Amino acid sequence: MPIEVGMYQITAILRSIVLGSALMALPMKTQADIMVMPGNVIEGHAKLEDDCEKCHKKFDKAAQSALCADCHKEIHKDLDEKRGYHGRLDPSKQCRECHTDHKGRDAKIAEFDRGKFDHDQTDYPLKGAHLNPKVKCTGCHKAGKKYRDAPTSCDACHKKDDKHKGKLGSKCESCHIDKSWKDIQFDHDKTRFPLLGKHRDVKCEKCHNNDKFKETPTSCNSCHKKNDKHKGKLGPKCESCHIEKSWKEIRFDHDKTKFPLLGKHRDVKCEKCHSNDKFKKTPTLCNACHRKEGIKAHKGKFGTKCESCHTVRNWKEIIFDHDKETKYPLLGKHRQTKCVSCHTGDLYKQKLPAKCDACHKKDDKHKGQEGDKCESCHSEIAWTKTTFDHSLMSTFPLLGRHLLVACKKCHATPMFKGVKTDCRSCHTKDDVHKRKLGTECETCHNARDWKAWDFDHDKTSFKLDGPHKEIAGKCYVCHSAPMEKKVVAPTACDSCHDKDDVHNGSFGEHCERCHIGNDWKEIRVGVLNTRDE
User: CA angle, corner 211, sides to 210 and 214, nearest 5?
Assistant: First the structure.
């Protein structure tokens, strides 16, 4: 019975014959490997497909990763150095866990979710604008190239965006950051021209025009020549006077010049002395700037060496030492006197007299009566305070209360000569005795106090005895009539007791011959005598 064979069966038979013939041509080991191979390897491994032992070790799966490393040396290096994506993975992880082969020539050796891939595990973490979803993986990782071979330099992706046209090199990150091109992190302070003061606020293009960043001039006048008010007269080194903080703030140290600025000069604006921006050969004499003030105040009488008297702290502060530099030391009130009060003429030509009346003749209230030696009584402290010693320089020493009395109480006029010294001349109104005790007050009173009188009647020629003691202090009983100078009173009994004489003068006026002072009624016996002795 004839057998009918279709086209399909014929094709299958032919293929089997061809395959069998091919296998017969291979070694027995290779024939066995091909028989168990699950499928074709990827294009990159195709040349190894005939030698399974290049990637596999029989009955030892753990050895497979080591075999991978033998071929993929760059990955092997990453693993050893703990760098790159593979170097940061768990060391126990095997290659086959992520990479599988034998899925065909066009298959992908590794399947992973790009959306979940952690780029921070690589040597190029994504930051700033790189994290934007609009940035696609394919923008950096080109087809046909390994992911690890993707370039990391900025210009590899942004060369077209480089406004500097490559003039500043390829290290964009030295100035720019991932967040935005406009955010600059360039540290100008690390260059030869640190940005200080106002320079920090200046836009880059103000100094770096045409995107020229190299060999930019650093001298001030390269940018500020138009602003130079000195018109180049002071040279190009503006920094010797000005600072970056502000043009108006000057750091020029005038103290290092031949004319240090002291006192009030520190507050003077530069242009007051340096008119027309003239800073060289500026005169240093006082009258060069202060001539008008000098003429107004002294009218040129004191010369041009203002510093011999004045200080830079204040015109009113005088340093001229009259005590050391003249024969006339200034004491007391003289220190407060204005120079022009005495120096009415030229200071260096006029010779001033040193006597008081040369200046104070009009002030002499004594009208010359006391001579011209005012200093014998007065001092420079004040005219009203005198040094006149009344005890040594007059015939009337001042004692007790007299020391407290103002001069004018006794000296009604400035004429001091011829003044009376008796008490009555000053104290007539104070005499409560109405002259009944005479005018020589000092007989009873002293200068210490009017009330502290020390008159002792017993020391006179009429001692107070008996009843007379009872009238002690009642002076007017006996002293009833006013008198001049010393007290002169009669001592005879009848001068006071005439009306009391019961004898009507029969026994004379010497009552004491019979009567005892203790009592009128007490009589001395045996002393009667009708004759007056």
Answer: 115
Q: Containing H/E element for 523?
A: strand 519-523
Per residue in 379-388, pLDDT tens?
888 887 888 8
CB atoms near residue 86 (< 10 Å): 21
Do the domain assignments include residue 151?
no
**Would you say residue 206 lies in a domain?**
yes
pLDDT tens-digit series, residues 159-186: 888 888 888 888 888 888 888 888 888 8
Assessment of whether the complete model's pTM goes beyond 0.85:
no
**396: amino acid identity, one letter:** F
* DSSP element (H, E) containing 37: none
Is 266 in contact with 260 (CB distance < 8 Å)?
Answer: no
Answer yes or no: are the C-beta atoms of 103 and 49 closer than 8 Å: no
For 387-395, the CB contacts below 8 A with 24+ separation are: 395/421
Locate 459 and state its tokens. Answer: 């020391």
Q: Which residues of 294-322 are buried (b: 16+ CB within 10 A; e: fewer)?
A: beeebeebbeeebeebbebeeeeeeeeeb
Q: Are 244 and 189 in contact (CB under 8 A)?
A: no
CB atoms within 10 A of CB 254: 15
Domain that holds residue 218: 189-252
Decide: 245 and 197 in contact? Cβ < 8 Å: yes
Q: Indicate whether 224 belongs to any domain.
A: yes
Q: Domain count of the chain?
A: 1
Whole-angstrom CA distances from 466 to 463, 490, 499, 511 are: 10, 18, 19, 14
In a domain, 199, yes or no: yes
